[in-house]
Design a protein that fits this description.
Layout (H helix, E strand, L loop, with lengths): L2 E2 L8 E3 L4 E2 L2 E2 L2 E6 L8 E6 L4 E3 L10 H6 L8 H6 L41 H6 L3 E6 L8 E6 L1 E2 L26 H4 L5 H5 L16 E6 L6 E5 L6 E4 L5 E3 L2 E5 L3 E2 L8 E5 L10 E2 L4 E2 L3 E6 L10 E9 L5 E6 L3 E5 L6 E10 L8 E2 L3 E4 L4 E3 L4 E6 L4 E4 L1 E3 L6 E7 L2 E6 L8 E4 L2 H5 L3 E11 L4 E10 L3 E11 L5 E9 L5 E6 L10 E3 L4 E3 L10 E10 L8 E9 L1
Length: 565
């Protein structure tokens, strides 16, 4: 399993196989971790070897005579600082009016000019280049420039006297000692074979097998032209800035969260494992029917992160051929957008990103045309009637801002259409009312809806909810037609109710407009008092009324029978 670079010990060897100089991957050693004054949560890498032989700074054109002859020892203005932090050719830019490039004419004996070479960052892999942290460095100023110190901000830098454990320059603390430097032996450094083979300076003691001297960024502040360096014995010395045979040993800072291999390779290096971006979202879906004043749900297929990092998404919208603007940033794979009347066309694109801000490419939707058509309206507001004991009704009118649209009304009970009105009249008062029979068939909660649709496909729904409550059962029953007035009757009934809430009435002239009802007792013979009729014939009838009483939560009539003479 990969591990964080911060888990490695100081002096462990690390390299990025894509970051090269002279065509060979640069070897680094861990110089320190979370070093004081360096970026927070950073790990410092120092070149394992001297990677280049060249001058610190070239001879100048005028100004200070020592700098005209021997170069400038002020690090903020030095050619080497600029080269370390630039890519490509043409990297040199004059830092002041007397500055000169490190060309053949302005370095000692013409050795190792580098003005026409590509900047050091040219050979960095894209991931490494992006991962470099900007470091604020303290540098002593030469007495010629007023002494004291100044700060610079660089991604690649030379180390100072203080950072390699060799004290301060003229009382200026240029940072603090890195953990890797404990004594003279810890400062010894050899050049790479490539640095030697590419050097025009070929003294017999310059060899990949022998220690060589390397530049520090500290000036020898008593002079305008002398720069501090670490000689081949690990001590401290100084020399002219324009000497083209000094060694360059750069340093840099990376996030301590960067991953490396769990074990070193055959050459002893841990390999940096760069974070991979998530895959591009495979698809994005935008409905073809897009209407102003309506919500529009845009969805996309999920991405996968090769490093198992958490994935989120950025959704952007463009309308009327304008620019892209971000409208969503989060982990969901859909977003409800609001379409306005200002939008005639809309398009969307989405990309994935991981927790380390690595981004995928965009997936872009087709451009959709926006239909501008307003919703129809229905008067009033949704209502909750609560418990009702009589059939509910609702009066309403309908309208539409688009004069050419045809309106259709559908009245429904519990999702079942009861009536359809088309074309519906604008501003005409309609009434949605349940009949007694419809209401009698209901129990518990119910929903009445009035849905108004226009011919453009827009609709609006008004909702009325209620709960039917039955507190009384009241019905009558024609038992039979008779040739003469019934004299006696016996009524039997199975029911669920308190006996005090049960009333039984009987009649022998049920066919009359106003029958003569007489109170009877269940299970007991009743003798009719009436013997007259106004209808053409006699008929026996029974009327039942059951009222909630005596603590009964529910009432019921299960069966009813009658016999008569």
């Amino acid at each position: 399993m990969p591990q964080k670079i911060s888990a490695l010990p100081v002096k462990a060897k690390v390299r990025d196989t894509k970051t090269k100089y002279y065509g060979v991957p640069i070897g680094w050693v861990i110089g320190d971790k979370s070093h004081s004054g360096y970026p927070a949560n950073s790990t410092t890498l120092v070149a394992e070897n001297i990677i280049k032989i060249c001058c610190f700074d070239a001879m100048e054109s005028d100004g200070n005579l020592d700098r005209e002859r021997y170069g400038n020892n002020r690090y903020s203005l030095a050619n080497i600082r600029q080269w370390l932090n630039k890519s490509g050719t043409g990297w040199y830019q004059a830092q002041h009016s007397y500055d000169r490039p490190p060309s053949n004419s302005y370095v000692w004996s013409g050795y190792n000019e580098y003005d026409a070479q590509s900047g050091f960052l040219t050979g960095f892999g894209a991931e490494m280049l992006a991962a470099l942290l900007t470091t604020t460095l303290t540098v002593a100023k030469p007495g010629t420039d007023g002494g004291g110190s100044e700060t610079v901000q660089d991604k690649i830098f030379l180390l100072s006297m203080a950072e390699v454990g060799l004290g301060s320059e003229n009382g200026v603390a240029e940072g603090t000692k890195l953990a890797m430097f404990s004594d003279s032996a810890s400062r010894l450094c050899k050049p790479t074979a490539q640095a030697v083979s590419n050097s025009e300076y070929t003294a017999g003691d310059l060899s990949a097998s022998q220690n060589w001297w390397w530049w520090l960024r500290s000036p020898y502040s008593s002079y305008a032209n002398n720069v501090r360096f670490v000689p081949s014995d690990g001590s401290l010395y100084n020399t002219y800035a324009y000497y083209g045979y000094g060694g360059v040993r750069p340093a840099l800072n990376l996030s301590s969260d960067i991953l490396v291999s769990d074990a070193p390779d055959s050459e002893g290096y841990y390999t940096i494992i760069w974070n991979n971006a998530p895959t591009t979202p495979p698809s994005i879906t935008v409905p073809e029917d897009v209407r102003s004043g309506k919500g529009l749900t845009v969805s996309w297929a999920a991405s996968v992160d090769p490093d198992t990092d958490a994935v989120s998404y950025e959704l952007e919208r463009k309308y009327n051929n304008g620019g892209w603007s971000k409208i969503y940033d989060g982990a969901a794979t859909q977003f409800s957008d609001t379409i306005t009347t200002a939008m005639n066309t809309v398009a969307y694109r989405v990309r994935a990103k991981d927790s380390k801000n690595a981004y995928s490419a965009y997936t872009t939707s087709p451009t959709r045309t926006v239909t501008h058509n307003v919703d129809p309206t229905v008067s009033g507001s949704d209502q909750q009637l609560g418990v009702v004991t009589t059939p509910p009704s609702f009066q309403y009118t309908v309208n539409d801002g688009d004069a050419g649209d045809t309106l259709t009304i559908v009245e429904s009970l519990d999702g079942v259409a009861l009536k359809t009105i088309t074309p519906a009249e604008r501003n005409h008062q309609y009434t949605f009312a349940l009949t007694a029979a419809q209401f009698a068939a209901l129990t518990g909660p119910h929903t009445m809806t009035i849905k108004v649709s226009d011919s453009a496909g827009n609709s609006v729904t008004r909702t009325i909810t209620f709960t039917r409550s039955v507190s009384i059962i009241d019905f009558d029953w024609k038992v039979d037609d008779t040739s003469a007035a019934a004299q006696k009757i016996l009524v039997s009934m199975r029911y669920n109710a308190h006996e005090d809430g049960v009333t039984i009435q009987v009649c022998n002239n049920y066919n009359d407009e106003e029958p003569t009802w007489e109170t009877a007792q269940l299970g007991l013979k009743h003798i009719f008092s009436n013997s007259a009729k106004t209808a053409d014939s006699f008929a026996v009838g029974v009327r039942v009324q059951i009222t909630k009483a005596g603590g009964y939560e529910s009432i019921a009539c299960y069966s009813l029978s009658a016999s008569y003479i």
